[in-house]
Fold this sequence. Notes:
Number of domains: 2
Order of helices and strands: HHEEEHHHHHHHEHHHEEEHHEEHEHEE
Shape: elongated
Bound molecules: glutamine
Structural class: alpha/beta
Helix content: 40-55%
Distance between the termini: 45 Å
Oligomer: single chain
Amino acid sequence: MRLPIVDYLDEVLAGIGTDNPGATADYIPELADADPSFLGVCVATIDGTIYGAGDIDVPFSIQSISKPFAYALALAEHGLEHVLERVGVEPSGEAFNELSLEEGSGRPLNPMINAGALTTHALLGGPQADANERFEIVRRGMSAFAGRELDVDENVYKSERETAYRNTAIANMLRSYGTITGDPNGVVDGYTRQCSVLVTLRDLAHMAATLANAGRRPDTGEQIVPRSVVRQVLSVMMTCGMYDAAGDWMSTIGFPAKSGVAGGILGALPGQVGIATFSPRLDQHGNSVRGIRICDRMSKDMGMHIMEGAEPARSVIRRDRVLTLPGNHRVRVCSLQGTIGFSGAERVLRTLAENPDNAGRVVIDLRRAYAVNDVARRMIAEAARRLQLDGLSVSLLDPDRVLADSDAGEAEVISSLDKYRPY
Ligand code: GLN
């Protein structure tokens, strides 16, 4: 069977039509000359499947899409507190290359604007590292996310470095406030190389899917950065990733994303998919015009807005029944299913609290409960404990040991229902 998703992506690109407004980034000569006709989209699932349409193997420079990855690497290296002392997490509402710092503290407002990205870059490898070492850290890190060795485009690097007047000004401002130490020019060198790393949509899709998969590479299972780091990175992408268009993006498209001035956009819908688009012409905010259109269409068609929450709470109880055993013993079997978080567990607790048939034993059937998060595990175990305090016998039908580390009192753990089946 030819998968309909591929046809769908072809159709999305066809739907973009011939209209190709905007302009390539003119402040970097090498990007100004980019072929504006390139157009592509890739979607990567969190189990490692990639779907694509259009120009998915054309290399282009990653530009600002490197910023969330450099931020992730800085967080993994130094911890949240250390990084937060130097770079904030507030949306700036200003252009990406604005010369501005938080009043009072001298911190850049967030790591997605250039001031914050230069500071983040400067943190890599500690104060002793030089531009090449910092660049190598970020190149290797992004390669780990992408699953192949990425390399720099020397022409883009030279072209941007020769005209990096603005970033040099920002780096000098950061140096004057003591936000960065050492040579500001070296920071601009390393950061500009970081932005000049070449990627294809396929690479970006892998990188996006790794973010969507809480930092774990979908294909190999390798944890590239800790889960908590990814949460921080996606939060900042959500609020600051599209610069001064972040609010508009959040309300219409609604998944964390980051754009680059070469025309790429990377998006990640946590727990679901990674998305990457490419079209070189930009709007006034520096975001790819047709990339935004593609993301907008896909978000609407595929229900990808993060605020359009699923309703797991209603579906966590698969079945709740009472079996009558010989001797008129009643056993209640409450079967759970799916992903269970706080709201799902609350539903389970409320259901278990009622016992209309006066069953003397409750079996909590966890065979189809997967991805039970920490709080849900503790809540369900606590319910098992309290039911025992109420005088009931409790069995956990838990062959995969979902509740293994939780305190469920004296509940017996069974791996099949056999002994409670009526004969
Ligand atoms: N290298 C570019 C710069 O620093 C990145 C900007 C961007 O992609 N928005 O100006």
